[in-house]
């Protein structure tokens, strides 16, 4: 047995000694190249990563109460207003945008980010086609924010969660969302805002704060005029936050109250 091992060792040593530096170098390069390519393919297939400097994400409610209160059209107008004011900002930096309705984004298409300049305005008929019968506020907020984290890579991010009622799906509690925001989001580079369209009974400050959203980034419009103003404030937040790190940090600390509604 000892002789067999010795012979095997000598054979391997002879092969190594006969290798030139060029052989070894090319072998290492080939190995590294193959491994890097495999990692790149894996990452792009499983978790597409945005290359933007600034990520803007919006989660939009489309439950029965939205229809009952005739808010579908107003939300579509608000969405398109945000898009309108976001696109010019992309002339100076790369901005990627994603908007999904509740329910995991399956009804509203891809969960990946897209260059905002390529995003088309939303129509009421398209928005209406995403209708669902319940509001998994916590579960889908967690999915959206988790996706933000996967894509951020040292980028500044601004996320908005819109609802007109509290969660009525208990699969995920608000504590899970809060832990994600508290321990994974950096207040210097990440803003998470909540827009609660007043229904007369829901305390949206309590709802959003239980999810980890700061009080200064919660807004509760109670009329069509206030809803439009809320979207204009968010658009203003986008404009300031997209400038640079210093401007982002300043607005992140102060919230909606430090902003003036953007004008057309």
Summarize the structure in words.
With 264 residues, the protein is of the alpha/beta class. It has two domains: 2-46; 54-258, Rossmann fold. It has ten helices and six strands, in the order ααβααββααβαβαβαα. It has helices spanning 2-18, 21-46, 64-68, 72-86, 124-128, 137-152, 174-184, 204-210, 224-241, 245-254, and strands spanning 54-60, 95-101, 114-115, 156-163, 190-196, 218-219. A six-stranded mixed β-sheet has the order 3-2-1-4-5-6, with helices on both faces. Strand 4 (156-163), helix 7 and strand 5 (190-196) form a beta-alpha-beta unit. Helix 4 (72-86) packs parallel to helix 9 and helix 6 (137-152) runs parallel beside helix 7 (174-184). The longest helix is centred in the first third of the chain and has 26 residues, at 21-46. The radius of gyration is 25 Å and the shape is globular. Residues 28-48 and 103-110 have low confidence and may be disordered.
Write down the domain tally: 2
**How would you name the CATH homologous superfamily of the largest domain?**
von Willebrand factor, type A domain
- Please count the beta strands (DSSP E, at least 2 residues each): 6
* Integer average pLDDT: 79
Helix content: 40-55%
Q: CATH class of the largest domain, please?
A: Alpha Beta
Question: Strand share of the residues?
Answer: 5-15%
Structural class: alpha/beta
CATH topology of the largest domain, by name, is Rossmann fold
Distance between the termini: 86 Å
N-to-C SSE string, H for helix and E for strand: HHEHHEEHHEHEHEHH
Please tell me what the overall shape is. globular
Q: Largest beta sheet: what is the strand line-up?
A: 3-2-1-4-5-6
Gyration radius, to the nearest Å? Answer: 25 Å
Q: Give a quick account of the main beta sheet: strands, pairing sense, barrel closure.
A: 6 strands, mixed
The helix count comes to: 10
Q: Low-confidence stretches at least 5 residues in length (pLDDT < 50)? A: 28-48, 103-110
